[in-house]
Specification:
The protein starts with 7 loop residues before the first strand and ends with a helix. It folds into 3 domains: 8-75 and 129-148, 2-Layer Sandwich (Ribosomal Protein S5, domain 2), CATH 3.30.230; 78-119, no CATH class; 202-262. The protein has helices at residues 45-58, 82-99, 107-111, 123-197, 203-230, 236-258, and strands at 8-15, 20-29, 34-39, 62-72, 78-80, 117-119. The chain has 6 helices and 6 strands; from the N terminus they run βββαββααβααα.
Amino acid sequence: MPISSMTGFARLQVRVNEQLAYTLSLKSVNHRFLDVQMRIPSGLDALEVELRKALKDNLVRGHVDVTLSVERTAQTKSGYNRELVAAYLAAFEEARREHGLEGEPDLNMALRLPGALQGESRGDEELEALAESVRVEIGPLLGELRTMREREGESLAAILHETLDRLAEAAKGVAELRPEVEQRYQERLTQRLTAAVGAEFNRQRLLVGKKLDFLLQEMNREANTLLSKTGGAGGKGTRITELGLAMKAEIEKAREQIQNLE
């Protein structure tokens, strides 16, 4: 099975039309889960949902930054909402006459009203053209990102294989040296026991007892690991915790009996 790294980068630049171009980039680094951060222009909520789904369908893990930068080359001409400004002026004149006030309407204030200034660019059509282009390009761009992650994964696989080879070589060396070390250890232990209790002891029973004690220690460690993984899980995890505690109790009883072996 191929190994993929979580590190990768892919970017493309697209010109939608004479007035609109954009750059879309994907940057991926290590993370425990799939964590996606979007930086895209406002008004593209539906596109953001689609992009998140595409990333989830193609990637398993990694922190992924998605950046969509838009470039507009055409200058838009601005106008104003005549009906809104006329209504403001009429309301000003009516209020002044009704309350006997003095003063003149403020044009700057009128143009600050929401919707007073209008552009001639077709914003909705532009956003839709942008979104449609991104939908087409996201697939190939994700393919490019996966390719880079797989290439990085090949490098990691090579490093892991070299590490495992060195571990295997070290384990082989230990296996070759172990018989001599075990023999010396047993001789030293025999000397100490002989000095402590005399020559009359059953050496074979002693070795059996020590092996069983070692195995029970290992079993106790596994039970502790089991309990550490299920604590606070609730549901069936609670039952596993109960069984794990029961296992530890039985292991301790067995260890007490082992102490009685020669």
